[in-house]
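Task card 7
Instruction: Convert sequence to structure tokens.
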Amino acid sequence: MHVQEWLETVPPLAIYLLVGLVIGLESLGIPLPGEIILVSSALLASQHGDIDPVILGACATAGAIIGDSIGYAIGRKGGRPLLAWLGAKFPRHFSEAHIATAERSFQKWGMWAVFFGRFVALLRIFAGPLAGVLQMPYWKFLTANVLGGILWAGGTTAVIYYVGVVAESWLKRFSWLGLVAAVLIGLTSFLILKRKAKKAQAQAAEPELVSAGE
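Output:
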């Protein structure tokens, strides 16, 4: 069933809780379609007056911030063994190449990797746990986490909602385009990171080959 059609059968309170929960779990480090759920719910809010976009955005923001914070705490306590365990459980998302790419981003950008990672599908899953594993100072993580959560979750809700209000008649017929756009953005981000991960893995392997040759 179409995501938005399914959401239409769910009471508003359940939608608020669902959005907060899915985004929270995704931010914690569990691969879930948080962005698709948020876009679908915001579109639905623009078409039905019983869903408050302010409450929806607040729930999405709270889920993003709380989920990332829990992920940070788990990563700080679990350390490198946690990343190895995640790699075994979710090899497509937590492969060594993906982790290497995310770690390079953290080393280069620091707290800004947490902030901007909120807008990239794969980094959104990594940000909290990896920041904890790398022992990022909590005040830096919290600052980037809160700002990124508000801008991404609140901003996405506001933009999609107001676009839906302005073009309600158009979106009722073609609302799937919003979902397609979200999926394409996420897929593009994933492919770019995957390519960078392979490049980083190849560069890391070069010194080993040179050493072996010597």
